[in-house]
Amino acid sequence: MKPYLAILLVIFLFIETHGSRVKRGLSADEQKKFLEELNKDRKRVAQEEGIDYVPVKYDASLEKEIVPGKRCFEHRQYLLPLQYNDVAEQLRKHYMASEGDNYQYYFLKDLDRIGCSKEFKCTAVLEKHGDIPLELQGKTIEYHGVCVQGESDPGAKSEKLKKAKTPSPNKYGDILGIPAISGTGRTDGKQGSEVEGSGKDGAGGEQRSGAGSVFSLTIFLFLVLYT
């Protein structure tokens, strides 16, 4: 009897240790809803701007590129937000008036794969330099939920998309049920990254609770086998 019980407990341990990673990405239903809306927008923008339309596919392997503990601008991939705060929206409008949507990478024809996390959160302070409007310098942008594309370098912006009527990324966050971010960007200089339920050090509360469950099950397994 004990060997069978041990096997069951090992299975539980595996589920506990690997379950938190699965929860970070999008479910099959969420992927479907997200891609349907994104590809519909990509097709419209492509037709309006005279560029080739290429539908995007979801690639779950890209989810591992979204690393807890890193700030918004520290990832190897360019992070595309699913929900952002008003400071990020003000910055987007600033760029749209001159060089085009700074999140136009959602609509580049070269984008063919994408992976996302609803739980990932990050912040970044806008540095004081010429490209950032004076009124936004020192303020904090905030992302709740992000996506990364298949290529690590998104490349240059497309001139053909410079005046394109691209929707706010918040549209996709709304579709996925990510709550809107309230409040204005703080100016205390704090920035960081987290996964939902985590502290600012990026260590998820979900992961900590999972570790506690693993420890409890390990002790129980020891008692069953050796008593």
Describe this structure in words.
Residues 187-199 have a biased composition (Basic and acidic residues). Keywords: Signal. Residues 1-19 form the signal peptide. The chain is an alpha+beta fold. The chain has a single domain (26-203), classed as Pathogenesis-related Protein p14a (3-Layer(aba) Sandwich). It is 37% helix and 13% strand. The chain contains five helices and five strands, in the order H-H-E-E-H-E-E-H-E-H. The chain has helices at 2-24, 28-49, 86-96, 170-175, 205-226; strands at residues 57-58, 80-81, 113-125, 140-149, 193-195. Strands 1, 2, 3, 4 and 5 form a five-stranded mixed sheet that branches. The longest helix has 23 residues, at 2-24. The model is unreliable at 8-23, 185-191, 193-215 and 220-224 (pLDDT under 50).
Question: Which terms would index this structure?
Answer:
227 residues; five-stranded mixed β-sheet; 5 strands; single chain; 37% helix
**CATH topology, what is it called?**
Pathogenesis-related Protein p14a
Strand content: 5-15%
**Name of the top-level CATH class:** Alpha Beta
What is the total domain count?
A: 1
Number of strands: 5
Percent of residues in helices comes to: 25-40%
Q: For the terminal residues, how far apart are their CA atoms?
A: 13 Å
Structural topology:
Blueprint: H1 2-24, H2 28-49, E1 57-58, E2 80-81, H3 86-96, E3 113-125, E4 140-149, H4 170-175, E5 193-195, H5 205-226
Parallel strand pairs: 1-3
Antiparallel strand pairs: 2-4, 3-4, 3-5
Helix pairs in contact: 1-5
Signal peptide: 1-19
Region (Disordered): 152-171, 179-208
Keywords: Signal
